[in-house]
Design goal:
Length: about 240
């Protein structure tokens, strides 16, 4: 069971990908489309490489060292090299990444507990925000397509906020837009470093969701789903679903 924080929040920030939206499944759909195009035979190897290269390249992008297009090309090239293709030019990488995005979009879906939890929290009067390292245009498109936009007072994205998680500034920006002290906020995400450590640095209480039931971390409330979050704030877990 998670440790219940001493103070209940007045506002709650949420990560988006793999917290509210099953981005891992959508990413797998996109990855398989690229693999088929370049003749990559091994999904397990490709998935592992894609995750590692994404962490490296996207992290470099968030630190301002490379452009968004460069980090995308790095990820595609790493996958191509693993498949025995070391000859891709930039235009081919760009075309393959567009293929990835199109297939990724076809796989967008929320987790089964997402609308139920957000509806309950919004109906109870909590001020809600999204805090994400994803690209703003893409994140807004996901939220609109999946009917998440009406729940949130603000959406703070790394590429327009001037900082990405775990930098505390992005969390502070969210609290400022919500009109609350960061100490009155909880932040719910799926990554210990980006979401947990980052939120603590900004004086928010971190809640990390691990739908596979992983081990806990000191100072971080761990939950296995959003129904547990509702329980922590004292709301029924069988609240009706639907968009406000």
């Amino acid at each position: 069971m998670p440790n219940i924080p001493a103070a209940a929040p007045t506002a709650i920030c949420f990560d988006l990908d793999d917290t509210l939206i099953d981005d891992s499944a959508a990413s797998s759909t996109g990855l398989r489309a690229v693999m088929e195009r370049i003749g990559h035979p091994d999904f397990s190897a490709a998935r592992t490489l894609w995750e590692v290269q994404t962490e490296i390249s996207f992290g470099t992008y968030l630190r301002g060292k490379i452009s968004l297009e460069q980090q995308r090309r790095e990820r595609i090239r790493a996958l191509a090299v693993q498949a025995g293709r070391s000859d891709l030019v930039d235009q081919q990488c760009d075309d393959l990444y567009r293929l990835y995005l199109d297939a990724h979009r076809s796989g967008w879906q929320v987790f089964p507990d997402t609308h139920r939890a957000l509806n309950a929290l919004a109906s109870a009067g909590y001020r809600l925000a999204v805090v994400t390292n994803g690209v703003e245009s893409l994140q807004h498109a996901k939220m609109q397509a999946l009917e998440l936009t009406p729940y949130f007072h603000t959406v703070v994205c790394a590429d327009t906020a001037g900082a990405g998680k775990p930098d505390p500034r992005i969390f502070e920006t969210a609290a400022q837009r919500l009109g609350v002290d960061p100490r009155a906020c909880w932040h719910v995400g799926d990554q210990i470093q980006s979401d947990g450590v980052g939120a603590r640095a900004a004086h928010m209480h971190p809640v990390v969701i691990d739908r596979r039931g992983g081990r806990g971390f000191e100072g971080v409330t761990m939950v296995s789903g959003l129904d547990e979050l509702l329980h922590l704030v004292g709301l029924p877990t069988a609240a009706p679903s639907g968009v406000l």
